[in-house]
Amino acid sequence: MRTLNPELISLRTSGTEPGKRAREFGTKVMGLESEEEEPRERFPPPASELSSGREWLWTPWRMRYVAGEDPVEGCIFCNRLGEEDDVQSLILHRGERAFVIMNLYPYNTGHLMIVPNAHVASPEDADPEVTREMAELRGPILRALRRALSPDGFNLGLNVGATAGAGVADHLHEHVVPRWQGDANFMPILAATMVMPELIPVTYAKLRAELAADVASGNRATDLVIVDDRGQALVDGDGRLPRIESPGDEPVWRAAVREARQRGATGVELLGWAGERHVGSRRSALLLRAVFPVDSALAPGIRLTPVNELLDGIDAELVRIALARDERFET
């Protein structure tokens, strides 16, 4: 029997176990072992230092990137844009002239970048339509971040040229960094501790669901693949996966957790994206893990079924996508 292993989801996405990556920099990682808790309005992001009246985001987990330990041939943005698996590449949105991608080595939780499709180094080299589309993406991105993560503010900006601090100087990109009141705290300075409120695949799923509703199609319908550690999935009376219609003022991920609880699940936890790998698909789907009581305690019309039996049903495509990567399971 196969059981979900969210640690391996992170390994598949980042290429490095969170604990191992932190140990390389002499830091500790908090929050890797999550327990059931009510959704919170604030996420304590990685910390920063206050010094001489200036605020410095202190991010030791970025040292692998800064030190060049993961060299990439060619342009990292062009490479990601040319790949088919947008979940693996952390691409959240593909537009006609620009795309949105998460930063694998973020300054803060939810750190995104708006990147032109064309390989240009500076704004004056870009077509006016490109910079216009990049600007138009800011609104949907900020709305998605506010709904999904509830930040108190943002840092937005461009670093043009290596001297100005651009990590990838030959391909223009704009940073969008969520900020929280109190994210400048003492944890990494005094305790050598890096606070990780959630794994990157979870943040990716939250943001992609929001952007899919806002930018792609405006359709807020989201399918839910809700499974337990015994290989069972929650389905409606007709054998279909649950589907939610999230109101505009509620984050999609929170509506998914609420819906699972209303159907009788406990210990509900968002694991990641369960929809198609390539951005632009019409169906959004989230993968959640939960604990199911005996059938009699489930909501009326709801039942459990072995995941394998769904592979031949009407939602087979979504189930296959959600369970496609064997690294997500352990025997």
Q: Which features would summarize this protein structure in a list?
A:
single chain; 331 residues; alpha+beta; HIT family, subunit A; Nucleoside Triphosphate Pyrophosphohydrolase; five-stranded antiparallel sheet; four-stranded mixed sheet; 11 helices; disordered N terminus
Q: Which helices and strands, and how do they pair?
A:
Blueprint: E1 3-4, H1 6-14, H2 18-23, E2 28-30, E3 48-51, E4 54-57, H3 63-66, H4 76-81, H5 86-89, E5 91-94, E6 98-102, E7 112-116, H6 128-149, E8 153-158, E9 174-179, H7 187-190, E10 193-195, H8 200-216, E11 221-227, E12 232-236, E13 243-245, H9 252-262, E14 266-273, E15 284-291, E16 302-306, H10 307-310, H11 316-322, E17 329-330
Parallel strand pairs: 2-10, 11-15
Antiparallel strand pairs: 1-17, 3-4, 5-6, 6-7, 7-9, 8-9, 11-13, 12-16, 14-15
